[in-house]
Structures are given as C-alpha cells and as structure tokens.
Amino acid sequence: MLRNKTAIVTGSTSGIGLGIARALAHAGANVMLNGFGDAAEIEKIRHALGTTTSGRVLHHSADVGKAEDIVAMVAATEQAFGAVDILVNNAGIQFVAPVDEFPGERWTAVQDIVLNSTFHAIKAALPGMKRRNWGRIVNVASAHGLVASPFKSAYVAAKHGQIGLTKTVALEVAETGITCNAVCPGYVLTPLVEAQVGAQAKAHNLSRERVIREVILAAQPSRQFVEVDDIAALVIFLCGDSAKSITGAAIPIDGGWTAR
Ligand code: NAD
C-alpha cells in the first residue's frame, strides 16, 4: 500500500514509534528509524525489519531536541531514499512535578523534544512534499493534548501546542495533496509509562497492579491500556488514500478518556 513511499518516524527505537515504524515497513514503505538505545539492539531491529519487508530500513541517531540534527536527518533521508513522503513526529519524554517546583531545564527539554522537534521536522520535510504534491504528517500527540492532568505542565503544554501546530500546518497545505493530523493516545504500556508506574508504586507504597488500575488507568474509562498496534493501524490508515480528506484533525485513541 505504501510501496515507493519513504517515512521518517522519530523516536522509533522503542514503544509506540517502533510499532508505527514496523507497520509502515510492513505496508511497503522505506523507513528511517530514529531514537536512542543500545547500538547493537537498534541494528538488530533495523536488520530484522529491512530483511522481512520490501522497503529499505535505515537508522539516524539525530537528537530531535536539536534543530540541526533534525535538518541533517531529513537531508540524509532524502539523500538515501530520494524523498520524505511520510513524517511521523513521535519522539517524546515526560517529567512530572508541581508547576512551582518544575525544573526549568526539564521544561525546556520537554518543549524541545515534543513541540519544537515537530516544528523543525515539518519545516525541513514540507518543501519536498510540496514539490511532489503528496505528503502525510502524523504527530503523535496525546490525550494530554486535549485535556490536562496535574503535575504534567510541560508535557500537557507541549502536547496542546503540537495539536495547534497540526491544525495550522493542515490549513496552510489544505489545497495540496498533503495532510497533517495528530493522533491522541491514552495510556499505552511502553517504557515511558512503565517509569511512571514504578514511581507511583514507590510514592504510594502500592503494588504495580493497584497503581495501574487505581492511578494510571483511573482516567481511562476502558480500564485497558491502548495497544501499540492499534495506534500503528490508525497511522497507516491516515497515510492511505482514503484518508486524503482527513486533515487538521486530532484523533483520540484513548479508551474513552477525552469523552468525559
Ligand atoms: P518510549 O519512551 O517508549 O519511546 C520514546 C522514543 O523516543 C524512544 O525511541 C527514544 O529513544 C526516543 N527519544 C527520546 N528522546 C529523544 C531525542 N531527544 N531524540 C530522538 N529520540 C528520542 O515512549 P512512548 O510511550 O512510545 O511514547 C512515544 C510518543 O507517544 C511520545 O511522544 C509520547 O508522549 C506519546 N504518548 C505516549 C503515551 C503512553 O501512554 N505511552 C500516551 C500518549 C502519547
């Protein structure tokens, strides 16, 4: 379905991004992986994906908190594959603290890695998409892009910002073959959330199971984690031709969280 298309997925060495990268590769796209981790482990993922799918798979080690790294990654992808047709801005980090105790440098890091990276990547990839009159930009925002929770000021602000940027870009390119959307997952059991489960279990002296049910999934009416593969399937749909009229949307995939 996406044969001859090339995708960049930021933060795709783990969790949701890895699931999206896998799905894009299995749909036939060339994929530029990105993200941190053990070099041998990343190479294993890259090699396995590249040899079991029809496209080619590479990895770029850009730190998306740095604009110049993002520009270099987009240029390297265009050089290697000839284009960036699909851009998935997925990399993200979390930090939890009351706003009056929030360390300034953590605030800046969350804005850089979640929001500013999305701007820099879109800015770098859009000219090529405009030239080819085709493109799909999918920003992995969050239910926290639509509603807030206490102690997550930086993350909630960055995710709301990502959705505002999504809408603006969608309007700017609305008459072209390019769409720009956000997907807004609820809780997904990835390393990012595992860290929060561990921290909450310690803080409240509760078992892992009770923290998941009574703290983490308290906001999620389904009381089930969202599955990575379901988010990946939504992204694949947004990349297809049937989704050409969906643009500027922020699509919840959150077990009912934002329906409240
Ligand atoms: P994760 O921690 O499993 O993966 C994050 C990925 O981002 C990793 O590949 C990591 O190496 C990469 N990364 C982090 N900082 C980076 C940087 N500076 N440069 C390049 N790569 C960097 O997290 P996840 O849960 O899969 O989250 C992925 C996205 O989904 C994030 O934007 C997150 O905010 C969002 N999200 C997650 C959940 C959830 O419950 N897990 C819910 C809603 C939204």
Structure description:
The chain is globular. Helix 4 links the parallel strand 4 (86-89) and strand 5. The model has no long low-confidence stretch (mean pLDDT 97). The chain is 48% helix and 13% strand. It has helices at residues 15-26, 39-52, 67-81, 104-132, 153-172, 191-204, 208-215, 228-239, and strands at residues 6-9, 30-34, 57-60, 86-89, 135-140, 178-185, 250-253. The chain has eight helices and seven strands. The chain has a seven-stranded parallel β-sheet, with helices on both faces. The longest helix has 29 residues, at 104-132. It is of the alpha/beta class and 260 residues long. It has two domains: 6-186 and 226-253, NAD(P)-binding Rossmann-like Domain (Rossmann fold), CATH 3.40.50.720; 188-225, no CATH class. Bound molecules: nicotinamide-adenine-dinucleotide (NAD). Residues 10-17, 34-37, 63-65, 90-93, 113, 140, 142, 185, 187-188, 190-193 line the site of nicotinamide-adenine-dinucleotide.
Secondary-structure topology with pairs:
Elements: E1 6-9, H1 15-26, E2 30-34, H2 39-52, E3 57-60, H3 67-81, E4 86-89, H4 104-132, E5 135-140, H5 153-172, E6 178-185, H6 191-204, H7 208-215, H8 228-239, E7 250-253
Parallel strand pairs: 1-2, 1-4, 2-3, 4-5, 5-6, 6-7
The structure holds nicotinamide-adenine-dinucleotide.
Strands of the largest sheet, in order across it? 3-2-1-4-5-6-7
Structural class: alpha/beta
Helix content: 40-55%
Using DSSP, what is the number of strands? 7
Task: Catalogue the ligands.
Answer: nicotinamide-adenine-dinucleotide
Give me the CATH superfamily of the largest domain.
NAD(P)-binding Rossmann-like Domain
